[in-house]
């Protein structure tokens, strides 16, 4: 594009080229002897000016500690902005967006709903206070924000929130991403009718999460904070539209980083919490364990590590003593086997994301255990499978498992059949009746259904953000455990 640099005596025309790693301005059309070469770095900042009609009229670059302004037409400037989006920090966010709604907050940031002034498009803006980032003498927090942005720039996958633009104001950084209309997965399952998801919904949800983690593994990225609150629905009540968000704790696998306490209590892989003499490093397996905690919640409707306070949760999380026998007759065997592989305390034998996706659970026919229990209740007048479990001892449970294998059915199905035979006057009447795997209790394997303003004025937008951010700076370490 061609732009104009205004001077008191004579204005100069410049030719501008945008490249993958830099922007060049030269007085010559062949781009020789470029006067300005702007590399895309953490310090790079592009400023904007708009006319009274809200049309872009100028862009500015920082050069020798001054802003140098270049004029051009709105269409060319808008195209320039599109090409630079997500690569460098923009200034003057209030030229482009309005905001008056808070979506959520964390220990170090707020997330606000922002509306584009030139369209009806809405986005989510994560607003990080500079005051928070500079509280520590070290550069840890700045480095984490820098890495979060770099990772978001690198990710291009349908199961992740997409980065659109990054802004830097006087008091805050802003990361503008997709706005997801749906709720968090945590709130979705909490408000779901009867607090119960179908087997199909559970499988679709965990498949999407594992597919996302498999993509991260291929990019050598570790999320480190996979949890129900960081999985959002793009569309209301559509579990097939799940997306992973919040890369505030994410890092690259290489170079390896030593294990340190990081994540959310109850979701942290046990190797991170257990001190060891050996030097151990973060791997993508810690995300698999966190996904296993989510899978446990989806399958059982229970929290894996339940306790009165955070310290007790952390202790149970570290010990990782899980009684799978409690769920042996309540869960389908393929689901239980996959759950065990994901929650393996040993990261060396814990399943990888690809191993999880290759598991028979994602290709087998699904059983609805609640329907099987309802059939039993109606057919026999009995009070359900849970009473059978209470009645049986450990030895008889083991015997039933063996017998079920001989009959080529799961233990739950075998018990239903045996209960019917026991409660009829003619025991042989049901001998050949295939009561397990009834057609109306099956669901076939399915694929996912989706796969203007001058710089010295403080805008109403930034006032809103800064007021909201100041209210939680002091709560830094109370909400979540971060890397020390």
TrEMBL record:
Residues 97-362 form the Protein kinase domain. ATP binds at residue 126. It comes from the Eukaryota. GO terms for biological process: mitotic DNA damage checkpoint signaling. InterPro entries: Prot_kinase_dom, Protein_kinase_ATP_BS, Ser/Thr_kinase_AS. SMART domains: S_TKc (SM00220). One of its GO terms (molecular function) is protein serine/threonine kinase activity. Pfam families: Pkinase. The keyword Signal does not apply. GO terms for cellular component: cytoplasm; nucleus. PANTHER family: OVARIAN-SPECIFIC SERINE/THREONINE-PROTEIN KINASE LOK-RELATED, PROTEIN KINASE DOMAIN-CONTAINING PROTEIN. This is Protein kinase domain-containing protein. It comes from Paramecium octaurelia. The lineage of its organism: Eukaryota, Sar, Alveolata, Ciliophora, Intramacronucleata.
